[in-house]
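Could someone model coenzyme A with this protein?
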Amino acid sequence: MRHRPVGIGSTIIDIWQWPLDVAADALPGLVAALSDAEFARAARFVRERDRLRFIAGRGHLRAILGAYLAVPAKRLAFDYNAFGKPRLAGAGELPLHFNLSHSAGVAVLAVCDHYQIGIDIEQVAPFKEDLAGTFFSAAERRALRCVPPKAYLDAFYRCWTRKEAFVKAHGAGLSLPLDSFDVSIGATGQPRLLRLDGMPDAPEQWCLLNLATPRGFIGAVAALTAGNAVSLRYRTGEIAVPRRAAMPAPEAAILARNGRPAHQSFAVGN
Ligand SMILES: CC(C)(COP(=O)(O)OP(=O)(O)OC[C@H]1O[C@@H](n2cnc3c(N)ncnc32)[C@H](O)[C@@H]1OP(=O)(O)O)[C@@H](O)C(=O)NCCC(=O)NCCS
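Reply:
Sure, complex below.
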């Protein structure tokens, strides 16, 4: 598919955020935007809440990317790299880079037209396991040990989301060893990639940014900007998903399997 130029520019990464728990009357429009494969994936979720959140995630993602490209949301096609990172199929010489993250009912999306990007958002929640010991590098664990107990949880999630955003931007997913790179964990100053095995100039090539999030969440963005300065432009509040009066009966019936009639699950009528 040929797309028109997007025109975000080399100094900007657009950030979109939306809730995944949507009103029932928004669902028909969101379902209408999904591809057949996404619809099938939605139908496979066992828990209704997960199914609806997936629909709200993909539906909004398609609406937003479709608006950039002036293409109807449903006509967008995605393909996936070997590690599952989605990208627009056939974007050719007019690339639109994007990455999506969701946590506890909140979705965030980073979009730009110049750089490979990744984004991560996490709800800050206490845990008992030694997650830092399992997932963080020796340098990151050392830095965390210097953090006072009251500040530990936020520092942990800053480290986690910066690492995850980097892994997602890199594209290799979790096949990239999590101890092969270090990120900064501090709350102040610009976050940084401090080391990437085998690539001494990586800290100058990669840019990390703090994401502004709702209270109780922490997030980060990573981009391969090759030294260019970028900033985040928050676009929240501008998402327009076309409204539909009702979901077609066959779709409603498929999504409402597990013995629950469609009008109970979605309140959209028949
Ligand atoms: C899949 C992964 C990329 C992100 O998983 P996650 O944190 O559970 O999920 P997020 O909500 O941040 O991102 C999911 C979205 O990222 C995108 N995505 C999927 N695979 C991806 C990949 N390899 N690279 C980049 N983006 C990817 C998709 O759009 C996906 O949305 P979808 O589930 O609606 O299709 C992967 O890194 C993972 O499994 N992480 C597990 C957590 C972990 O161990 N983190 C260690 C960090 S220290």
